[in-house]
Amino acid sequence: MSETDVVVSAFATPPQESFRALAQDLTLFANPPVVIGVEPQMAEGEVLASAGFNRTADSLKAQDPQGSILRPLLRRLKGYKIRSVTLVGFSAGNQFLKRVLAGPDAAWIDGVISLDGAVVQKVYSGALHQPDLDIWGKYALKAARDQRLFVNAFTGISSHSKQVTSTAEAAEAIMDYVQDNLSGAVTVPSYDLNELVAGPPPPSVTITVNRPTASGTVPITRTWDTMPMPDIAAIGNAWNLSYGGNAEPDHVFISRYAQRAIWKTFLAPRLNQGLTCAGTSVPVSGLGVDEAATCTLNRKLVPVDVYETDSPWPGIAAATSGLIVGIGAGYWFGRLARF
Asked: For residue 219, how many C-alpha atoms fall within 13 Å in the half-sphere facing its CB?
């Protein structure tokens, strides 16, 4: 049985082959992970996909006695032994990530990459809904202790509703949560942050998005000549990357070009490198028996019995209707932007 790392991609995998190869470049990895695309189950006439991702999560959760969302999904990878699981979500796809992190699967997630979609609900007074913040914050806290990876890339686009934060507000709140709940010193893992600006672009990239209005659509366009360096905040292995921008093209840029930079800077080195003790650069392979017994790994590896992958295809295919497994993307993503 072949061992593999898995990336569960909610709305984050472009349907166009050229953009898919750009945003989620599997040539970056010594042993490429398997990418599983998750789609929302949309109701007729529905525009926002958050509710659709809730339906997808609910349909999967209902198939597992322990309430796992990922077990029915990953079971379709017949013939693999799953080594680790990374979640990547773009825009409304982060609702699926949040549902996974709120359940039993959170214990086995090695990495979370949020692409301009992590938000936190607000209560009537305008204060943050604490249980909602806890979902993101508890995971980011583990990353701060160098036991997971958490990368949150976001724009300055305003929230569409007074009931939820913007992605920028949520990012700040998550880091505040980590700061408030963290004790002791932390070590920021060594990444080559120059990879964040390695490009493309250049060459220049122009993204046009048709914005709906009462009288029709209006094209909104922006051009990037170089890859911008985001404003970076880090606590341990929890990262906020602020790319700014306040319009639709900035949102799409995150999904394609910022995603590529994040995979190259953070995800590929994490999957390519060997294991170390959390908060150190000490390789596990060089430890003695006693030392290894007291070492907390910097990665979360999945025991073989957690996500079994040898179930028959026909039953699983019928049980998971409404999902696309393989390289897939979101409902409207391919229609949203054009070059």
From this structure: 8
